[in-house]
UniProtKB/TrEMBL annotation:
Similarity section: Belongs to the ClpS family.
Region spans: Disordered: 1-18
Transferase found in the keyword field: no
UniProt-recorded name of the protein: ATP-dependent Clp protease adapter protein ClpS
Top-rank taxon, per record: Bacteria
Gene designation: clpS
Length: 102
């Protein structure tokens, strides 16, 4: 019969799994030859960092060996890595930039 919905049914909230795209960390690696100023310039140019932010991250890489410089979708991360690698090679610096799934 109608009208006893509130007595007989159990309230159930379904929470459909929201699909989020995987994210990728872009990592900058230390080396002994790339000038510090060049790394700072790369971080400003390709990762939109301020000069002081870029300097700070550059020093972290220099001291710790590597640092995450950003987290992006696969396509954006791939593009950033390619841009940094190309720019570094054009300036004949051995700077390495890689990506890994978060
Ligand atoms: N270690 C380099 C130097 O002493 C500086 C450097 C920093 C290089 C960060 C790469 O990702 C890097 N000139």
């Amino acid at each position: 019969k109608s009208g006893d919905d509130h007595e007989t049914s159990v309230a159930t909230k379904t929470r459909p799994k929201t699909q989020r795209p995987p994210l990728y960390k872009v990592l900058l690696l230390n080396d002994d030859y790339t000038p510090m100023e060049f790394v700072v310039h790369v971080l400003e140019r390709y990762f939109g960092m301020s000069h002081s932010q870029a300097f700070e991250i550059m020093l972290t890489v220099h001291k710790k060996g590597l640092a995450v410089v950003g987290v992006f979708s696969f396509e954006v991360a791939e593009t950033k890595v390619a841009q940094v690698m190309d720019f570094s090679r054009r300036h004949q610096h051995p700077l390495q930039c890689t990506m890994e799934k978060e």
